[in-house]
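Usage example:
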Amino acid sequence: MSEKKPVKKKRLKTAEKLGELMKDYYTESAMIKSQKKPVAWLTSVAPVEICYAMDVFPVYPENYATICAARKLSAEFCEAAEAKGYSTDLCSYALNNFGSIYLNKGPFMGQGLPEPDLLIATEHACLSMAKWWEALSRHFDVPLYVVDSSLPVGEDVASYQIKYFADQLEELVEFIEKHTGNKFDMKRFKEVLRYSDQASSLFLEIAEFRKTVPSPVSPIEMFTNMFPLVTLAGKKEAVEFYKELRDEIKDLVDRGVPAVPNEKYRLIWDLFPVWYNLKLFPYMEEKGGVVVADVYATAFGGSIDISRPFEGLAERYVGNPLLSYGIGEYIELYKQMIKDFHVDGIVFHSNRSCRMASMGQYEVKQGIYNDLGIPGVVFETDFVDPRSYSDEQVKDTLDSFFEILETRK
Amino acid sequence: MTIMDFQEKYKNRHEIAKQWKKDGKKIFGYFCGYVPEELIGAAGIIPVRILGSLDKVSLADSHIQSFICAFGRSCLDQGLKGTYDYLDGIVVSKTCDIMRNMLGIWSRNIEVPFTFYIGAPSKRTEAARTCLIEEFKLLRSKLEEFTGKSIDDNSINQSIESYNQSRKLLKELYELRAEDNPPLSGSDFYHIVKAGFVTPKKEYNEMLLELKSKLTSSESSDGKGVRLLISGSTFEDVNILKMIEDSGGTVVSDDLCVGSRYFWDLIEPASDPIRALADRYQMRVTCPCKHPSDERLERILDEVKKHRVQGVISIVQKFCDTHLFEYPYMRDLLQENDMPFLYLETEDRLGEEGQFKTRVQAFLEMLR
Ligand code: SF4
Ligand code: SF4
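Running the assembly step on the lines above writes:
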């Protein structure tokens, strides 16, 4: 049952523009096949800059899954994937993707994503990505390039690790040239890198504004505004968008306008939103709990040394703290954030789909509590597949957490 | 030398290790078959594989979620219970996401003087191998620092030789299973392999040699069982294999992390032993954690043909992403090759509950 709700005006002017950017991107995506532009499907933290530099249209099944989840399509998609034999325990980003392929359905104009001509995966975020892309490569019978890595855990990235990654980026260029005929141009590449670098430093700047008490941006605004950072990394539009957003938020800071009235508890949100239920944020906000920090800004905000384009890009990707931090570093990072952002507590979303990122959460929570006495709470869901989600249970867990926060005030 | 002796070795492994400790020896643990044990051995340290147990997981639950594979949870649980307190070090290699996270959690909660994480690449390319060489070199120097003694090439070569001998012997025994009347059952073989994870190679090789000389002369099975290949990740519960055999199956071949994948490839001697090691560990028969994984499946098909396999049973840990991602492909591929296939997902304690029994029996019935 879908009730027609009156369209609510967005609080941020720039947010209207985000809608346009997304619409433009997905319209282009729907038409792309008729334009004869090669399409590549990318995992997150894959070097999209190379695609933009080489005129390859990048498609992100993961971002797409979040949209399918928000539009309540993901349960059907996951089921379709399971019917083909994919375990329900696999990452629901992947299940959602497989299902939308099998059913050729999606939230935009009713159809699924444009079929790929190329597949590009990394495996340094998690190993599932490489496995998932291998399956795609068999399904579509199109070439796959996996950018592999050797990763440190909790130690500095070694130069041979950067070299291994950077050399593969160069190999990826050859791979794209070979399969699309599109030529690589260094000047263009550097320009794309500059845009990507600018977008991410602007995003960081915006995230920094959240240090202001009360916070000028809400978590939903932050999470939805990540779209250009990931999908349009390397496009001028992304830079323009973030400039505007930055200015708008700076103005809010200057005028002392809070995102949420009655901000009482300032929170860190650990990892993914529950994509089909972003309403959890307003639920917490009613109780005075405002998420003011998360790791995404740190993770996607790394700068790129453009004078050494391939190494620079490799450093940015391999050095991504979200991926190369050990538990100890993670705790230190959060401790710093707690200080800088004046944080009262941490909400850990333990996501059944993502073993990679969820596996250390209990430790991080305990470690921070031991060191600083800052409490955390863990609640478990699947971020895309709503079938076993219990709103009541999650809210109960959050409620008791707020009781704890209350006694500490 | 009987299978019992091998079984005993595994069963008493913690007591034996504690005795080594009393004798002043150093012991390291590793989880996964991508850790170069040869190098640890060359440092004068005894490497043992950390495996789970059939005990109920209790302590691990407050450290990792229930959606982590039973193998990972059980290993950590054992560690938290103090079962592995004798370890002087742990070396982990990046394979699956669970392994990648394990060391950090382990070392925060369980005291262990030395840890090393090999960032191991996943591809089977020259560049990946070059990368792994760097990592092995670093491991070598850290080991030297730890023991205070240098590890010369000669000792690595010697270590390689004894590991190679182990692998060769295991392969010979493995091949015996493929005979018409295999003198060795699949579960027996599993006991043999597991003993190898916790027994110093010199001693283990002697055990294998002795067993081998006996086996050829001992009586064989009746050769009437349904010939099976077992594929999958690691599992602890040997009863699963036993149940399959008691139901009329004969395991003649495997693709298991705790089976042939562990010993399949030998190390080709090279002038630089580190390079020789990297060659094997980067290029060896892939587990699904590595990319691309087609070669693993090709090998399964080869084995199926070579050993006149009548059916394949896959035993996969619930929540083991890499194996789960590959399951539909494997199923289709076997189907295309007219190879009957049964898929069992375990949480490691299901074997004894007989849940699989009816399915296995029906499967074997169909093949008879
Ligand atoms: S299947 Fe392979 S990577 Fe996984 S634990 Fe076993 S040997 Fe290691
Ligand atoms: S069973 Fe699978 S998920 Fe668990 S440690 Fe082994 S390879 Fe990793």
